[in-house]
């Protein structure tokens, strides 16, 4: 294995809680009740598609125009970005910094495959952006996760074929995308939640660069 591809939310940092707070505020305003169980379905899913899922869940999709939903998505994002201001280097999940520093020592490139348009800002806040050879721009994608496109692009940024890299993901949509291009998938979570992952771990402190490059 010659490179690592990282999802952001749920792998490098727990930003899902901020997405949830911002979506819940918006959903409350339009009279839709969402809870944390529903929020699981939004992990790894783009902003626009997340909003569509919320509106469908509340049977309100037909009530809003394209302009209105665009304004709602923008409002949610403003709230989300305000909440991100709290992020600091201590918010990197367990093992993240150590793993990235070790990959750098072994000269193994790392890239980010996140659906979030705020990925560069978050990596700066966490103080880990310097470890990445590239970040896939979700604006360049024709399809979001579970389509493999984002993971193929992440491998290309390292000049690798997908099957020469390992992808880390916490969402089923992401595992499906990784496996859809023949990449080795490490899921962060439990094997009941992450069907099809080649290996499941709790967090990055459970693996070493040394063992993974030998796969
Ligand atoms: C993350 C989150 C999703 C979010 C998406 C887009 O994906 O898991 O809940 O909707 O990014 O974020 P933004 O609205 O900031 O563009 P990932 O791929 O990092 O897990
Ligand atoms: Mg994720």
TrEMBL record:
Domain of life the protein comes from: Bacteria
EC number: 5.4.2.6
Active site per UniProt: 7, 9
Gene Ontology annotations of biological process type: carbohydrate metabolic process
Cofactors that this protein relies on: Mg(2+)
Keyword Magnesium listed: yes
Comment on bound cofactor: Binds 2 magnesium ions per subunit.
SUPFAM superfamilies: HAD-like
CDD domains in UniProt: HAD_BPGM
Keyword set, alphabetical order: Carbohydrate metabolism, Cytoplasm, Isomerase, Magnesium, Metal-binding, Phosphoprotein
GO CC, alphabetical: cytoplasm
GO molecular function: beta-phosphoglucomutase activity; magnesium ion binding; sugar-phosphatase activity
Subcellular location: Cytoplasm
Binding site for Mg(2+): 7, 9, 169-170
Catalytic activity: beta-D-glucose 1-phosphate = beta-D-glucose 6-phosphate
Site feature location: Important for catalytic activity and assists the phosphoryl transfer reaction to Asp8 by balancing charge and orienting the reacting groups: 114, 145
Binding-site residues for substrate, renumbered to this chain: 7-9, 23, 42-47, 50, 76, 145
Family per record: Belongs to the HAD-like hydrolase superfamily. CbbY/CbbZ/Gph/YieH family.
Protein name: Beta-phosphoglucomutase
Protein's organism: Enterococcus malodoratus ATCC 43197
């Amino acid at each position: 294995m010659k490179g690592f591809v990282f999802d952001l939310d749920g792998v490098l940092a727990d930003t899902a809680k901020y997405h949830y707070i911002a979506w819940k505020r918006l959903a409350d305003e339009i009279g839709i009740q969402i809870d944390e169980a529903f929020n699981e379905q939004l992990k790894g899913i783009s902003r626009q598609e997340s909003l569509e899922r919320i509106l469908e869940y509340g049977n309100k999709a037909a009530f809003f125009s394209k302009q209105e939903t665009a304004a709602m998505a923008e409002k949610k994002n403003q709230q989300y970005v305000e909440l991100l201001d709290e992020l600091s280097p201590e918010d990197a999940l367990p093992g993240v910094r150590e793993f990235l520093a070790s990959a750098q020592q072994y000269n193994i490139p790392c890239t980010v495959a996140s659906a979030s348009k705020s990925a560069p800002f978050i990596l700066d806040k966490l103080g880990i952006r310097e470890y990445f050879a590239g970040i896939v721009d979700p604006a360049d994608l024709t399809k979001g996760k579970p389509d493999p496109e984002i993971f193929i692009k992440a491998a290309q940024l390292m000049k690798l074929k997908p099957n020469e890299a390992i992808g880390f993901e916490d969402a089923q949509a992401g595992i499906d995308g990784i496996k859809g291009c023949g990449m080795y998938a490490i899921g962060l979570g439990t094997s009941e939640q992450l069907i099809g992952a080649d290996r499941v771990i709790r967090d990055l402190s459970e693996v070493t660069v040394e063992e993974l490059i030998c796969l």
